[in-house]
Every structure is written in structure tokens, then in C-alpha cells.
Amino acid sequence: MRAWIDQAMSEPRTQKLTPQHAVALRLLRVDAPGRIMGAPEDWPRWAVLLPHVLAALDHLETIEGIDETINEMVSWLLDRAGVYLHVHGRAREGRPMVEQALAVAEATYGPNHPTVAGRLNNLALILRDLAELPAARSVAERALAVAEAAYGPDHPTVAIALINLATILRHLGELATARPLAERALAVTEATYGPNHPTVAIRLNNLALILLDLSEPANARPLAERALALTEATYRPDHPEVASSLNNLATIMHHLREPATARPLAERALALAEATYGPNHPTVAIRLHNLAAILGDLGDPAAARPLAERALAVAEAAYGPDHPTTQAIRANLDRLTRSQT
Prior knowledge:
By secondary structure, the protein is mainly alpha-helical. The chain is built from 16 helices and no strands. The chain has helices at residues 2-8, 19-31, 43-57, 68-87, 91-109, 114-129, 133-151, 156-171, 175-193, 198-213, 217-234, 240-255, 259-277, 282-297, 301-319, 324-339.
């Protein structure tokens, strides 16, 4: 796999597509689950298929001369493999796959096709999580423009592009610009699916975090509470979307100076994240960091500090020492250390 990633970023491959390779691609396209984000039930199949997908793609040369059907399969498989790696905390490995998926889609369909918007959205999220925020913004803005031109302003695909751009702007600190995008994404999603759809919960969570960063935790709280109710009504109790909603509500309650209420929510969110992703995923680092901050405010730095130390080790391994998430965790650990001296 590492060889494929390195190769995808350097020289074009020289082997040509054979009928056997085409059959392999078709079989993988049929077998590989399409849903990855928020679909842990499909992750085991992807874990099995990923090395086969990479082996099949490794035999392809440049995209010229390959028919559109094959190109569609190649782009789809690259995109799905990259998203799978991203979801599992391996954004750096997923990035060249999603970039190549985008290149194939653009060459196959042209730059303004709705498939291109989807590839752009996935690349924007990877760049966001790699803290390449200006680049992420540019990609997300293009995704939104392509989606709106293809579908009009009220399509659920447009809502996805809106919320992706809003989250990137939130990370850039441009909250006043992010808020109306998130509000519009929520409105489009509710109009499309109704008020009780699990996708609505995702939009509620995103808007709640923007409101929190705008120093409006009291307004963020009912959105997060509604999101948690929707996810718990939709999914089994150990689903990662439930964990995300728990974590968001815990964060808001912490900011509302209710750490005793936040603590059990954060503890449950951490337990679910560890069960879903394993102990060394960057999402686990964030959950550890949040629980450590809550415990610190509850006057228990001795319990908080080992969580913060573990969070820092996981974040440094996933993101490196200079990533904003790593820096925030390190700052929290420093505060906890000072409080014990």
C-alpha cells in the first residue's frame, strides 16, 4: 500500500490495463460498500477489500486511453479507499488516493460534473483534518459552486457542500461567515428528509459547535440535545454518531460550567470512540482531551493528567507536534501540570 501511495504522488505508471484487471475492478466495484462515513457495519468488509483495491489500482497507468466505465470505477474505488483511510485516522495516506480520484473524475466528466463535487468535498475534509485550512477552503468553495450549478440551491448534495465549507470556516475562525452556511445546510436537510432524519442530527451538531464558538452555549445546547435524541433514536447505542453527539453535548455543558453533567457524557463518548476506532485514533485523542479538561475543572487534575498525556501521545502520532489539535492538547496538559505543582 505504501508503494502505491508513493507512486501516486510521483511518476505515472507504465503498465497498461488488461482484461483481467478490468474484471478485478468490476468485481471490487460491486463488492465494496459505498457508505463509509457513519457506517461502521461496512468497515470490516472494507478492511478485507482495501489491499485488493490497492493491488488492482497499482496496475493502472495514466488515465488516458481507458474507457469511461473503467474510469468511473477507478475514481470511485480510489475515493472510497481514501475516505476509508481518512475515517480510520490515516488522512495522510488517504489524501493521494482522493486527489487521484478527483483527477480521474475531472478527466472523465469535466470539471463541473456533480461527481467532481463529491470528490472535492472528500478532499476538502481531508485537508481540513490535516490543518491545511486555506487549501481546504478553496476546494470546498469549488465543491459548493459545482453542486449548486448542477442541482440548484436546495438539493441535499448542496447541503453537504455547505456544511463542509462551514466547518472549514469554523476552523479558520470565520464564525460569522460559517453560521449562515450551517443554518442553510440544516434548513435544506430538514426540508429534504424531515425533522427526525439522522442527517439532520449531523447538521444540528455542526451548527451547535459554531454557536458554541460564537460564545452562545445556551443557544447551542438545545441543538445538541436534539441531535443526541435523534442519533439515539436512530442508531444502536454504540454507534459513532451517538458518540459524536455525546461529545458535542458534553463540550457545551462544560462551557456552560456544568462539568458534573458533562462528565458522564464525555466518559461515554470516550468509551464508544475507543470501542469503534481502537485506542490510537485521533478521535480518541480528542475525547481524552475533552474528558481531561472536564476532570480538571472538577478539581481532579490527578485523574485528568494521565488522560491528557495519552491524548497528546495519540495526537502527536496521528498529526505531528505542530497540528492545532496537538497544540491544544499540549496546552491543556501544561495547565493540568501547573495545577499540580
